[in-house]
Write a structure and sequence with these properties.
With 280 residues, this protein is α+β, with helices and mostly antiparallel strands. Helices cover 28% and strands 32% of the residues. The chain contains four helices and twelve strands, in the order αββββββββαβββαβα.
Length: 280
């Protein structure tokens, strides 16, 4: 072969070799970058999970079972739903439907507050105000405040798609009172459709709904059970309460909420609680 041609051929091979080496180096770099990106994604998920666990740990002492206290009954504490401390720790927020009927005059409302890990005591409370058209109520504890209270979010600070946790007592005291946490997202912010009032159902609450329109609710993609009512719905971004768990969609009967939960729950937006607090 002509020496010049050999020189060009050698140069071509050398160039091709460098190009191939460049491709191999680029491929290894891309693989390394992908691995690094995957590691960052895993780390981000772990960090988010750790933050959520910390949020639950610092919030659980503020979430309490609410019920009726009657020292002559057995058991003396009759569970009705969940509630949580707000403000200075002496005010308790819950849903209006969790409160006992006003006819139970011989009984007192109480929360079963945690005094130390695994230990609880009944703390009596009195109703400060109730707004049944939006299913919110505020009570006040007798005696000292609870050790922790939950901060409230600003009205309308939550958006569809935001992650939340809900806390409460879904099976009451069947196996001892232990705070249970479920997680999910805000699936929709919508209005709650209620049946139209007729002559038989036209009461003050129905008249209020007709005047003000159907209440707004947060539809949650999260599992909730009977007993969760009145518990807080918390924004995982900042640990603030964005709603009060009010109800869950069921397939058939109320009992099916335990055996076949739909994973669709509804919460009262915190702005209705803000409205009630401004009246106190």
């Amino acid at each position: 072969m002509n020496p010049a041609r050999r020189r060009w051929a050698g140069a071509g091979l050398a160039m091709l070799g460098a190009q191939a080496l460049g491709h191999a180096t680029t491929a290894r770099a891309a693989t390394t970058a992908t691995t690094a990106t995957s590691a960052v994604a895993v780390d981000d998920r772990a960090t988010a999970s750790d933050r959520q666990a910390e949020l639950v740990a610092r919030s659980r002492a503020a979430v309490v079972p609410l019920g009726v206290w009657n020292p002559t009954e057995s058991p003396r504490f009759a569970f009705r739903g969940s509630a949580f401390a707000i403000g200075d720790g002496r005010r308790i927020a819950t849903c209006a439907h969790v409160l006992p009927p006003s006819t139970q005059v011989e009984s007192r409302i109480a929360v079963f507050a945690e005094t130390s890990p695994g230990q609880r005591e009944a703390r009596l409370a009195r109703v400060l105000s109730v707004e049944r058209s939006h299913d919110v109520a505020v009570l006040e504890l007798e005696g000292p405040p609870l050790a922790r209270a939950l901060p409230l979010a600003e009205p309308d600070s939550i958006r569809e798609g935001h992650a939340i946790v809900l806390m409460g007592y879904p099976i009451g005291g069947a196996f001892g009172f232990a705070t249970v946490t479920h997680s999910g997202i805000v699936a929709a912010i919508t209005t709650l459709a209620v049946p139209a009032a007729n002559a038989q159902t036209l009461d003050p609450r129905a008249v209020s709904r007709m005047r003000d329109g159907n209440p707004e609710v947060l539809q949650l993609d999260a599992v909730a059970y009977p007993g969760n009512s009145g518990g807080p719905v918390i924004d995982v971004r900042n640990g603030r309460v964005v709603g009060l768990l009010s109800m869950a969609a069921v397939k058939n009967s109320r009992e099916s909420a335990l055996t076949s939960p739909t994973g669709i729950s509804y919460a009262i937006p915190v702005r209705y609680l803000h409205d009630l607090l401004r009246t106190l």
